[in-house]
Amino acid sequence: MSRYVPVEDRAYGDEVRAENRGRVVERERQAVDRYLEERCQDILTGQCSNTLSEHRIDQLFAAVKEGVSGNKLKIRHNYLVHRLQQAAREHNLDLPNQQRMLVLHGESAPATPAGFEELATSHGWVDGFWDDIENPLSRDGFDTEKLDAGRLLFSCIVFGGVHSRKKLELLVDAIPKGVWHLEELTWMDVETSTGLWRWFPDPVSTLLLQRWYKTYGVGHWPRANNTDAPRLIFHFLKFLNRLPEAETRPKVVFRKLIDASATRDATWLEGVFHHIQHTHGAIVSLPKEAWARLLTRQVAFQAHEIERYEGANPATALRPLTGRCDSDAFAGVGAIQAVLRQATRISEAGERDKTYQHLTAIAEDDSWAPIVRVLARWTAHLRRFGGQQKRLVISSIQRYLTTIANPLVSLLATTDDLNALGEDEWQELYDRLCSGASCRKRRADRAVVAGWFHEFLVEQFGMPEVEIEGATTNGETDANLLTPAEYVRAQSMLEHSDASTRLIKIQKLVLMLGFRCGLRRTEVQKILIKDVQGLMAPVSKRPELFTRGNKFAGQKSSSGTRRLPLWALLTKVELNQLADWYQYRLKEPNTTGSDLLFCAPQRGRELIPQRELFTPIQEAMRMASGTPSLRFHHLRHACVTLTGLRLFERRPGELMQEKWARDDSGNMAMPLEIWRCLTGGEICLRLPTGQQSGPLPEISYGFWPYWLATRPRARLCKAMPT
């Protein structure tokens, strides 16, 4: 229990706790500083060797963290990483790569007592804003340009929902680049360190942006002293004469405005939107091409362009992907590691090229298995071109190689032609690679490094692109979706394909379950007859689908076992189609409940090859959308995005607009009846994704929250004169 108690000038418990946490952080950082000054003066002053051994760095971390645990250990570790990186930059040192400790933080409270205290003040500021809009005040003695800029930023916070200072700074940098318009949609693309943030301004901010561009032109923004966001807003409120006498510091006004606006929004927005508004780079935005397909129901490219993309040539003529497999593949990995170990003992300037040559020699040696030669080529590439950071030390390359080399070799040691592996085989390979890790941390590490490795294969050898979940350090997702109109088109294309009647029915049902229920390809491929409940004639009013591990494949995680309400997710026509197939399968000879729901005739215990089942589906999806990179996994994104729109509605059609839900013939392709069946927004959205814990599904797979968060805010906006 804290020994500090609230007094009159410190009235809130959250403020007291914040002050206590600050004292702890400062105390632990001072302990690290004292140790560095006493024992590591040579590092701080740059008088040590340019390349420190990994052993010394490990000893340094062990000594600094000795005797502490929990949050204090994390504070000391991260601060030591900061100090060493600072010394490396100042004195051009080559230090072994040390990463910061990352922990899962609980979400901050959407509203605090301090925020509610500022609401009354912010209401006065908003009243002044509208007074100036309706009856403009005289601007004599004020810088008109700064006033207009401050008014625009004020609107972005109060009406536009930008409740993060970092986001507002990025928005300021993006304003001179202009906005995008498509039918009734307006947005601004903002580049962040974690990907693209697509901000959809509210009606008031949209009109103020239009006024700004009309008055000052695109590409212009005040660039002078005292023109940062807090000072511009302070300048505007001072002009309105709405600042209390005590408000003399811009950052105080700015902080109070953000807190008050966030508190107000938290009273009528779902908690997930509070998280998105406050978190810098919370999710990945849907590409503007996907928005265009959703709004216009037009394809992105012509069919011949998609075919040309499919047949893309590799980026290099070097293809060490075939060869004998009679050598010890693990010995080949050992040979690569021996070259790297030798490189750590040499510091001469020209040795980087020699290391590259040794690794290239292994890659060109036909006596090694193809996977060994590809790993050697990738390692040489990291040595010369630096991987993701453009500058890698040997220890980093060794760590990346160790993360995936042996598991990959164990899976591909007997494969004598890597060219024969298609998208499905690579997908299954990386799923097995990641699932074989001993813990969640190592699984995430494998996914990240495997993503870098396969990116190299795609660029250098023309391998097919695959989806590796978690294959980025920031959780970035390959955002895309199949629209309702495109779903109907793809179903029609499958109907008129040259496949057998049985396979066409299966492919249409698989596409349906992916689009409506968000199933992964392995989940839909291994469904057993007994996993479907309530489809026996007469069909139950509430049939369900169980997804769970079986003898054909396990689950991606424990939360992957779930019950999906088919009665709510499928249309009546689709439910009848699934029921007809279910009853047909039961009538086939020698069929039991433990057989596969989707299989070839009389082969209920054999999976349909992924190439035969999913490749035609993906081709139909790409032709229907004109998007050559669309994959079956994007049906999962479509399910969460489109279903989420309906689950967060207060009434049918409020968010999932009717024209978005119709096909090319004007028929309803995304019925709104789910609104009457399921309620609960975020909770119910976890059903199709199987994410009972961890990242919210709308952050992992849904790409509408940035747009959705602005919709209810339109109620706050008065009719604004143009």
Large-scale geometry? globular
- Alpha-carbon Rg, integer: 29 Å
Spatial separation of the terminal alpha carbons: 57 Å
Summed up, the helix count is 30
Low-confidence stretches: 1-7, 302-320, 472-476, 692-698
How many β strands by DSSP? 6
Mean pLDDT across the residues is: 77
Give the biggest beta sheet.
3 strands, antiparallel
Judged by helices, strands and strand pairing, the structural class is: mainly alpha
Please bin the fraction of helical residues. Answer: 40-55%
Q: In what order do the strands lie side by side in the largest sheet?
A: 1-2-3
Give keywords.
722 residues; three-stranded antiparallel sheet; globular; disordered N terminus
Could you explain the architecture of this structure?
53% of the residues lie in helices and 4% in strands. It is mostly helical. α15 runs antiparallel to α16, α16 (370-385) packs antiparallel against α17 and α21 crosses α25 (610-625). The longest helix has 27 residues, at 13-39. The two termini are 57 Å apart.
Please give the structural blueprint:
Layout: H1 13-39, H2 41-45, H3 54-64, H4 70-91, H5 113-134, H6 144-158, H7 165-174, E1 180-182, E2 185-192, E3 195-199, H8 203-216, H9 229-240, H10 250-266, H11 271-278, H12 288-296, H13 303-310, H14 329-344, H15 351-363, H16 370-385, H17 394-412, H18 423-435, H19 440-461, H20 484-495, H21 501-517, H22 521-525, E4 532-533, E5 544-547, E6 562-565, H23 566-569, H24 572-587, H25 610-625, H26 634-647, H27 674-677, H28 682-689, H29 697-700, H30 705-708
Antiparallel strand pairs: 1-2, 2-3, 4-5, 5-6
